[in-house]
Structures are given as structure tokens and as C-alpha cells.
Amino acid sequence: MAGLQPATPKIVVFGFRDYAVDAGRNKRTAVCKVCGSKISDSRATTSNFTRHFKQHPERYEEYLRAKLASNQLQSPQMSPFIESRAVPSRTANTPRQTAITDAILTDLIISCNMPLSAVENVDFHRFMSVVDGEYSPVGLGTITARLELLVAEGRAKLQYQLAEVENVSVTVDIWSDRRMGGYLGITAHWMRIGAETIALQSHLLACSRFKGPHTICEEFEQICDQYNIKNIDHILYDYAANMKRALTTCFPGLVNADEDDHLDDADIWNDLAVEEQERVDRTLSTRSQCRLQGFAHTLQLVVGDALQETNVISPALANASRISALLHTSPSFGEELEMDFGQRGAPASVLPPWNVTLRQLKALVTFDYQKLCEVLEVGGHKESKFTEREWSQVKELVEILTPFGEATDLTQGEKVVTIGAVIPCVLSLNHHLEKQKKEAHYLGSLIHGLHRSLHRRFRGIFVNVRMSEPSDGGPLPFSDTVYLKAAVLDPSFGTMWLDHDVLVDGKLKEEVSAFVKDLILQDAAEVEPIPAEQGVDDRDPAEGEEPGLFSSYRKRQKRTAPSCPRAQLDRYLDICDGQNSLLFWAMNRQTLPSLFKVAMRALAVPASSAEIERVFSHGGVVMRPHRARLGNDTLSNLIFCKCNTI
What does the pLDDT look like over 132-152, one tens digit per residue? Predict the structure, then answer.
């Protein structure tokens, strides 16, 4: 260490040796003390050294602790900047001091989105002197180091949990912050199986900054290696074109009330050239051959396709948009509406999710038509009045699209099984549209457009249930058999969808039923054999047991307990009747052991990318307009901590 220059970065001093600077090439190199790898970086950064050292989690955590202790020793005294107050008597490492500092970080900075720099604010110091007169204020360097340590501990816990999991699925998406910086987000999904309970786990692995499209693959590989994820069951990752179209799907004639409310940037996908998209696809395929599309985004595309095909509803929707704008820009109109109807009105029209506008229309049609026209005319907004035909069109549109909104909400739940609902939702929507064709008076063209798009974008499902003929082309969308297995193994649905919404004759239904059962039994055959003590007891009733008052009950139960996977599947189909999926399998894991493992693998797959979208929503809240100077690493760390409760 004696030969190192004073300007040597702390991480190099701690974890590397043979440090050398090449001034001519503006480079510096060092050799990792742990693995002996030679790492190079520019003279102005340490990102390559840090990125490599993170691959040794235990040593990296030691480095963060040493860095934190060093920052606490070097933090300047804050008392000269505060009005006269007693010099704190508590040292930096006392339990009370540490607990308060940790609470400031977790409860105020992470949970309440308080800026990190607030810890150096004079008013905050004054407030803390009231809370605890002996607390010693910490500097920005200390709180940043504690944040890094918290992230390292969280990642270590995730690594430990993932090491014990057999089946993991991930969602992958990209996002841009307000400074148009690109971030790659990855969430992992698996089942945590306890002694008596089962819980669906969804955690953020990373939300990492990437500097260009070419770095997406490198970041993905690095994150997988960091958590030692070798094989992924399923990857949920939409094609760029689908993502862009889904994010911009809206009703024609409706305007965006507030662009800042929408934090997803569809244009970021334009930065991915075709060759880059193909490269990303190849990288993902090396980790998993099973790549799924997001159900909610695809359903948005179905609605978008139909809305683009028909213009008959546009005048009515334009009126609805004007009324929504009036509610949020004209106080007098809002007061008149509240006086007549007892409510302020519909939510603002926001561009990205079409189902937000659907909620607006549902609120609008609850008004009395005649009273609404009177309020508009008295308020001087005659141009926004609906004709009777337009009012009927809006009501019919709400009736047609309400099931689509329900399906979207059902498959975007948090900490609940969602993939089992995909096939029941698609088939139920198809059945709904078939009925609407006979009952609609004004929007027949829209219904036919929805029906065509539903069959095209979910063609794999309709082929698998024998409602469409297979094609000779490549893989069909939503043709993965995990959807069939999950639909049957989710006791909320079982085979009810097969009976009610598969619109084919009885013989074809039997073929579909046999096909799905064979898929499940093939997976069950690969499960480890059932231990003898958990299997069926075929002993004679009088052998090995003394008779008791209720001994015959126990023996009868033992005889009827299913042993082979086929018997377990028959038993499952007899007892599933709309129960909660996780509770059902927690209660029946011992009686259906082979089927249990198949169900846990299938039901852990998410139906949509809702979890990663929630991550990006948190990122948008953290990166508020007045926090534009927030560093990339700090933003990633704050998002990681905010989204993970481990």
C-alpha cells in the first residue's frame, strides 16, 4: 500500500493491487485481490472497478462498511451551522444514534421520498434537535454510504433466497427518467413455500442505467450473474413495437390532460434498431427458451386495433373529452354539476391507459341525460351536448368494453396468482363479443374489430382449444402451454372455462381436456417420487394398528388418498371449486404432492409486466422535476430499496 498515490480511489485501495496509471492513454488498471482479474478504467471514473467488485458480495459489503465508518469519522461538525445548542454527547456508533440515522434513511428518504441532501439542511438539524437533543447530525456522504450498504444487504438476502428456489421467472422492461436516461428493470417471481403457507414473491433485481442500446444485453447478463441465475423458466418481455403501441393506445378524439402524469416514454423503444432488438432476443433466449408477451399490453392492442378501424364513436368521445376538460378547468361548471348530481364528475382523461378513459366514460353515463344537457346549456357549453344517438353510443361502448377493463385489472394484481386467468379471460371476452354481435345497435363494426383482433393477437390460445385452425408459420402468440396448465391448476377456474367458454362441440372439448391433462401429467412424471411415508398406505386394516374409536375413519382416508399423478389430477378436479389458489395448494400439498410441484412452477409465472411498471412508477415519483441532479446510481439504489421489502 505504501507505493499508492494519495489520489487512489478507496475501492482500489481496499480490493485491488498492482495499481497503475497510464497518463498517456488516460487509463488506470489494477488487479482484483479476490479473483486476480485485471480491471481497467478511465482516470475519471471507478465504475468498472465497482462493477467487478460487486461480483464478490461478501468483500463488497465489507468495503461498504469500511467506507461508511470512514465517512462517519470524516463528517464535519454541523453545530457551527445551527443556532446555539448543546454539543451532542452521543458518539456516531451508539445504538440510538445508528437507529435514528437508519430510520431517517428508510422512513423519510426511501419511504417518504425526502431528498438525501435534507440531512445537511439547517432546519432539519433544528428539527432533529427537538426530536433528540443528543443526536449528532450526519452528512450527505454518510447517508449515501448507508444507502449503498442497505442495497448490498438487500441483494445478499435476495441471492440467498434465489439460491433455494428451483423455478424463477422474470419480467424485463426499459424506462426513461425525466432526463431521458435509459434504465433496464428486471423483476423476479417465484413461490416461497413455507411449512404451512405459500406466498407469491415478486422482487426487483435491479433498475440499472444503460448508456445505449448496445449495453442492454451486457446489463442483463451481469444482473443474472450477480444473482447466480442460470436458468429462467419464463421471461416476460414484449417486443419493442408492441410496447410502443400499447403505451400510446387511447380513444380517438380524447386529449392528454397532463403529460407529466405519464412517466413511461414510448419513444425510448425507437432507440432500439432492429438488429439491437434481435440481439436482445438472442440474449434472453440463452437464459430461457420460454418467452411470453404481457397480457395487459396485448389486450390494450386489441382495443387499439378496433378503435382505429371505426370512426363512428369519435364525435361522442370528443364530447366526453370536452366535458372532462370542463370539470377540471371550469370551477363554475364543476359546482353546477355537483349541485345537480351530488358529485364532481369523472376523472381526468389521461392518454396512456385506455382503461382510465373507460372509467371516465363509466362515471359519465351515471348522469341523467336530460339533466346533463340542461347543465351544459345553462353553463354556455351547448357545443358539448350529446345527441340521443351519441349518448346511446357511449352507453353501449361502456357495456362492450367493461369486461376488457375487468380482465386488465384481474391480470395485474400484486402478490396474487394472475397467469391462471389469461385463458379464462380471453375465452370469456370472445364469448362476450359473440353475444354483443346479436345485441348491439350502434357499434357493430367496433365489436367485429375487437373480435378479429382478439383472435389474431391471442391466436395461440384459440388454436390450443380447437377454436381456430393451426397455421404453418412460426410460433403463434400466446401458444405456450403454461397458459393451459395454469388455467386448470388454478382452482379459481379449474375446467369451468372449458365447459362455458370453449365454443366447440362436445367431442372437441373432450380432446382439449385430454390434451391439457396430458400436459400436466407429463410435467408431474418428471417430479421426484413421493416418499413412502407420504404415499398411500395399502396395509390391511388390522395390520400394524390397534383398533380405536375412529380408526376406521383414518384407514378409509388412507385407502382413498391418491398415489399416482393421474389419480391426484382426478382428485384435484373433483375438489377445486373457485377457491383461492395459494390457500388451496397450501392445504392440499400433502395429498396432491406430484401435482403440487407442477402447480407451483406454472402459477408463479406473471401474466403481465405490471410489477416492473410499478417499479417505474416509483422511479417517476422519486425523480421529481426539482430532483434533476439526482445521480444515476443513487436513483437506482433508491428505487431498489423502495420496491423491495425483504
Answer: 988 989 999 899 999 999 999
pLDDT 10s digits, 37-87? 889 888 778 888 888 888 887 788 788 877 776 665 555 544 444 444 445
Report the DSSP beta bridge partners of residue 174: 184
CA distance linking residue 9 with residue 45, whole number of Å: 9
CB 400 within 8 A of CB 442: no
Helix/strand/coil for 528:
coil
Distance CA 643, CA 488 (A): 31
C-alpha cell at 305: 386495433
10 Å Cβ neighbour count for 373? 18
Q: Among all chains, which residue has been given the C-alpha cell 425507437?
A: 270
Name residue, grid cell 405519464.
262
Residue 41 bridge partners (DSSP)? 28
User: Mind listing the pLDDT tens digit for each residue in 458-503?
Assistant: 999 999 999 998 877 778 999 999 999 999 999 999 999 999 999 8
Residues 520 and 598: beta-carbon distance below 8 Å: yes
Q: By the 8 A CB rule, do 498 and 510 touch?
A: no
CA–CA gap between residue 195 and residue 379 (Å, rounded): 65
Quick one: 224 exposed, middle or buried, by C-beta within 10 A (0-12, 13-18, 19+)? buried
Q: How far apart are CA 34 and CA 15, in angstroms?
A: 7
Residue 258: partners with Cβ closer than 8 Å, 6 or more residues away: 348, 350
Give how far Cα 520 sits from Cα of 165, 394, 408, 445, 575, Å.
Answer: 21, 44, 27, 40, 17
Cβ atoms 175, 618 nearer than 8 A: no
Residue 23: exposed, middle, or buried by beta-carbon count in 10 A (0-12, 13-18, 19+)? Answer: exposed
Q: What is the DSSP letter of 577?
A: S
- Cell 478511465 maps to which residue? 42
Sheet holding 235-236, edge to edge: 198-210, 182-193, 169-176, 235-236, 291-292
- Closest by CA to 643, choosing from 608, 605, 622, 614, is 614
Q: How far apart are CA 320 and CA 303, in angstroms?
A: 18
- Please state, rounded to an integer, the average pLDDT across all residues of the chain: 80
User: What DSSP designation does 112 have?
Assistant: S
Residue type, 438: K
- pTM for the whole structure: 0.78
d(CA 90, CA 135): 6
State yes or no: pLDDT of 281 exceeds 70. Answer: no
Q: What's the rounded Cα separation, in Å, for the pair 312 and 224?
A: 49
* Cα–Cα distance for residue pair 422/292, rounded to 1 Å: 12
- Measured CA to CA, the distance from residue 287 to residue 285 in angstroms comes to 5
Helices (H), 346-495: 354-364, 369-378, 388-410, 422-439, 444-457, 459-464, 482-489
pLDDT tens figures, 319-343: 888 887 777 666 666 566 666 555 5
Q: Tell which residue, 401, 308, 389, has the closest CA to residue 361.
A: 401
Give 170-180 pLDDT, tens digit per residue: 998 888 776 66
19 alpha carbon, distance to own chain's centre: 42
Residue range 193-220: average pLDDT?
Answer: 84
